[in-house]
Amino acid sequence: MEESKHGSAPTLPKAALAYARRGVPVFPCEPGAKRPLTRNGHWDATTDPRVIERWWKRWPSANVGVPTGKKSGVVVLDVDVDDGGLESLAKLERAGAPAPKTARARTGGGGIHVFFRNPRGTQIRNSAGLLGPGLDVRGQGGYVVVPPSRTEDSYKWVDRSPLAEASWLIERLTEREEATLF
After folding, report:
1. Contact (CB, 8 A) for 140 and 123
2. In angstroms, rounded to a whole number, what is the distance separating the alpha carbons of residues 51 and 120?
């Protein structure tokens, strides 16, 4: 297979299979974009290597999507640098505790995905801007695109630390939700 403008075609199927071998369900997204290619989108995510091979044979340059929430056990803080996400994150950290050391990836648009382990028995929902401008949470019912996918630029791991428990994120969300009640 030849390399496309959206990334190395052989690398993406290998990455999808590698995630699945580690127990992380995946699904294909449009090459160079984030829109799911399967009928049910992130709900179709699987760790079945036969299904994954069939998808990436059909779409060899497809980006790799991962559902967030219960299905994957992952919750992601999406920091959009163009919308003030870095400033909002710094403000959150000054007001409470610094974010824990955990896996982080640079997104194709130059933002940051901060990965947390979704605690069993807890459902963290998607939210946009609740924690501050440029900070979105991808939880139950959401998904993210992961390295080595490519949109405007390549997604890359910048920290491969083990996933931190989402307690830091839950505390920040709880504080914000309580503040909006009064």
Report:
1. yes
2. 27
Show the domains of the chain with their CATH numbers: 1-67 (3.30.720), 72-142+152-182 (no CATH)
Which helix H or strand E contains 51, and what residues bound it? Answer: helix 49-58
Q: Is 132 helix (H, G, I), strand (E, B) or coil?
A: coil
Each residue's pLDDT tens digit, 3-43: 344 445 569 999 999 999 999 999 999 999 999 999 999 99
> Between the CA of residue 135 and those of 49, 78, 83, 85, 147, what are the distances in Å?
34, 6, 8, 5, 20
Which of 107, 102, 101, 109 shows the shortest CA–CA distance to 146?
107
Q: Residue 154 pairs with which residues in a beta bridge?
A: 150
Q: Which residues of 22-45 are buried (b: 16+ CB within 10 A; e: fewer)?
A: eebbbbbbbbbbbebbbeeebebb
